[in-house]
Amino acid sequence: MSSERNPVTNRSAWRPDEMDTDQSWSFTLDEAHLQDLEKALEGVRNKPFERITREDFPLPSMSGLLQDLLTEVRDGRGFVRLSGIPTEFDYPDIERLYWGMCTHLGTGITQNSETGLIHYITDGELAPKDGARILGKPRPSKLHVDLTDVVGLFCVKQAPDNPLSLVASSMTVYNEILARHPDYIERLERGYHWNRKGPHGSEKSHSEFRIPAWSKSDSVVSCRFHAGWIHGGQNAAGLEMSDQDAEIFAFIDEVSVENAFAFQLGPGDVGFWNNYTTFHGRQGFAETNDESQKRVLLRVWLDLDSIRPFADEGRVRYGAIRHGQLGWTAEEVLSGRNLSPHNRHTNGVPVAG
Fold first, then answer.
1. If you compute the radius of gyration of the chain from its CA atoms, what whole number of angstroms results?
2. Structural contact between residues 321 and 224, judged by C-beta atoms closer than 8 angstroms
3. Which of 59, 194, 256, 334 is surrounded by the most beta carbons within 10 Å?
4. 39-48, 166-175, 193-202, 270-279: segment of lowest average pLDDT
């Protein structure tokens, strides 16, 4: 890890007013894109979504748009919204369309104890049934990262009161820490143990190692901060959080909220967030017992090729995700590879195949 601690000055460090004045993060499908999507969907209706590959789902007119989207997520502001995706299909077809499009962006991986490759974010009938499910509840979702390179959230139905979604630059938060509390950096770079959900029998209930909250490699800063996962991991490891930790976490929360950009994620919109450079969350919304009014989002977790250099890839990139039923590809699930624990090299990086 580099000992130099300089502010991040590239486009990943932004403030909310910049997102208002320059909306290059917002993309919209045109008629040619829609025709390609529907044609590709027609060609895979005989397949479950997890068997759909990029080759099965050609999108010739969208290649430039998807490349621009990827560039903005990987090297730009770390967030994009893509609007105009059809939602009039039944859910199996929506899954096929969403997954097929995502194969052009990265590799989808499992994200819950049910080895789900698409996770329904809702408090309605479509919510996952296994284990405690807090996702999709009406209360606000605090700013946080997810566990993989990129998270995608596809809005199929929004709540009637239209809660706004949130994005904040974790690079801006890093700059604020450097400017106002540089004494926090060493503790954050040392890192924390993270919780694990549903580990295989031989795996611990927490990461065996500390995962840096912010780290740096080749002048590239990466963030891995989620207060809930950290509190759970430190507790499972038998380590108390210090008064300084509480102070640091409160400051991160304060600065993240101050720098959050609120935007509409409506039906037919999908947002993609880079989990190393942004936090995401949303406002709360009114509870309803009417199933037809329930908010429904479909979440995918994506690994991207050459996402960025890491100070310690085994810890920073894979330390929180490759355990239990989390972090398996569709191919690995279909082959039954997920029935055994993840196999890692000594540096923590997963063994391919």
1. 20
2. no
3. 194
4. 193-202
Neighbours of 90 (CB within 10 A): 7
SS (H, E, C) 40-101: HHHCCCCCCHHHCCCCCCCCHHHHHHHHHHHHHHHHCCCEEEEECCCCCCCHHHHHHHHHHH
Backbone angles phi, psi at 90, to 5 degrees: -75, 170
Confidence of residue 2 (pLDDT cuts 50, 70, 90): very low
Total-model pTM: 0.95
CB atoms within 10 A of CB 24: 12
The topology under which CATH files domain 16-339 is Double-stranded beta-helix (3.60.130)
Rounded to an integer, what distance in angstroms lies between the CA atom of residue 338 and that of residue 14?
Answer: 39
Burial 31-69 (b: 16+ CB within 10 A, else e): eebeebbeebbeebeeeebbebeeeebebebbeebbeeb
DSSP 304-327: -TT----SSHHHHTTTTTSBTTBS
> Cβ contacts of residue 250 below 8 Å, gap of 6+?
none
Neighbours of 298 (CB within 10 A): 21
pLDDT per position as a tens digit, 281-319: 999 888 888 888 899 999 999 999 999 999 999 999 999
Each domain of the chain, given as residue ranges in start order, spans: 16-339
Question: What pLDDT, in 10s, does the model give residues 165-185?
Answer: 999 999 999 999 999 999 999
CB atoms within 10 A of CB 141: 18
Whole-number pLDDT of residue 353: 59
